[in-house]
Task: structure prediction
Amino acid sequence: MSSAGREERPVIVALDAHGADLGFAEVIAGANRALAAGIALRIFGPESEIRPLLRDAEGLAEIVDAPVAVSNHDDPATAVRSKRDASIVLAAKSVAHGETDALVSAGPTGATLAASLLNMKRIRGVKRPAIAALVPNGRGGSTVLLDAGANIDVPADYLVQFAVLGAEFARWVLGQERPKVGILSIGEESGKGTERVVEAGRLLSEGSHRFEFVGNVEGRDIPTDLVDVVVTDGFTGNVALKTLEGAAKGVMIAIRDAIKSSRLATLGGLLARRQLMRLRTEIDPNTTGGAPLLGVRGVAIVAHGSSTAEGIAAALMLAARSVEGGLVAHMTEAIDELRAAADEPQPVSETVVSVGDTDDA
Amino acid sequence: MSSAGREERPVIVALDAHGADLGFAEVIAGANRALAAGIALRIFGPESEIRPLLRDAEGLAEIVDAPVAVSNHDDPATAVRSKRDASIVLAAKSVAHGETDALVSAGPTGATLAASLLNMKRIRGVKRPAIAALVPNGRGGSTVLLDAGANIDVPADYLVQFAVLGAEFARWVLGQERPKVGILSIGEESGKGTERVVEAGRLLSEGSHRFEFVGNVEGRDIPTDLVDVVVTDGFTGNVALKTLEGAAKGVMIAIRDAIKSSRLATLGGLLARRQLMRLRTEIDPNTTGGAPLLGVRGVAIVAHGSSTAEGIAAALMLAARSVEGGLVAHMTEAIDELRAAADEPQPVSETVVSVGDTDDA
Result:
């Protein structure tokens, strides 16, 4: 149980120190920021490398020596079963055993998914956990986009569950009292889209929910505050998310080139620099920190592989906020309600990735 | 035959004046720019409204009085059959009859698609025509993204045809000698993606082509010059395209806000303004003008509904360039080659939208 012991001690976040593109120094620099902000950490990685980098004036950090890593070259499902002493496995287990409350890793996404599923298991009734990306909405907040890549083949009833999970996250972690939820399609009219999208829209329109279902939304609505949650399958969601990243990167390069391109513009650029830096911060994926994996019995945050110290710190804070918001308990309740409303029998055994997690409903 | 008479007279572009968000004044202002650049036009719309707006010093324009429009409220397939005197229908027929060489419309996309299909018919062997969006690639060129929304349900062999059609466009209209083509997926490895994407990737890897197939590309690669053509189904393509539009719009608003947000920044912003305007032009969909419908026997350009005069002019010039490049003949040849390579039987009758175009293979 991920929430075991929550009442007796402050929140502890389990940090997998392996796998970040920028290496241990950057990950631990991020950890140091979180520690300075009062977040307690259990850090899983090679102690000899981590210890010298750690700044822990308050004594909030514990290092669990875990020199073994799951790499991008490993098959995630196989690796998290065979490398039982890998940092991501030990970190996920610590959440599952209630020794820590949340998992953060900037290592391979597949490994984080597989380790979380295998060890934390799914929330009862959840068919497939989903990765929820947090997309800057241009108003200082975020749009929750899910699934951002965990599930390619997504029937309508999974999409309905994603809506429920995403809405609970928007409510209890992002503070949206009654989140607005849309389903991603290629036109606003309810008849537009794939069969699955149309069917999911119908199902979502019918029931009463803890959120406001607004119907179809389009790609252009993702980076705006039109809705708080955008629901889609993992293929489309991943393409949309990476398209946004590409656009943001392209624009930042273009702004830099524009600023550099003449002496007049350089002067102007220098003066406008502070404002443009703020814009860059807004676009930068490091600002949101990471993508929560929703639907497992514990908080798990997939940090960007290219996370800077700022990104790691943001992911750790997002993890702590998710625990403090009681996210997992609220998701469990909401999924129970959904199943009661649908008068469903117990869900059958299914897995996101072939890690063979047993059905726990 | 769209290319009938091409040898005997200069290129004439058929312009549907109806349906643009900004009205006749903007469409005809765009027409005037194209006329000034020496492009001959046949304009289909209400003569009484168009005539006073037209500036045609060289006598390159002809107006065909067509006061009837297909609106956004009409079902496109029904409307282009029942409103036989609608401007889009008359314009498409003029291309089909060889009186003009290319169609441009900023009216409803569905109507342009349906009218083109019904009247021009498909190129022999083409299973489904696709809309090819031109996405600025950050290097002054464009990435051809297709299908951008004509077909939701797209098996692997359609994706292969889209690759062939997009590559011919990139070669003969955009001037890419040997276009690089990628298939949109959620990871670079060839095993990643939906079954259809993996199968299409396999088919494209096998044959020899007039283009270089580079394998899977991701959403972030679309607004870059990594490849010249990105192939996907119409659902994913439309989501990706609209996501890009949303991001571009959001960034332009953010830049404007950043520039305005303090006196210091305003000074800086004014000085940097010229460079930022260039950036805006690069992002603006009006720059590319419109999206060609590839796979019909004639050039058809779907201009953005919100096209400015600049956008209309760009679409008209793109149409003229497509005719001059011999696009339709080249696509026909390439599809013939593909079919010969696959040793396929004649294709069965299929339609993009239910306009009941007869199979013409």
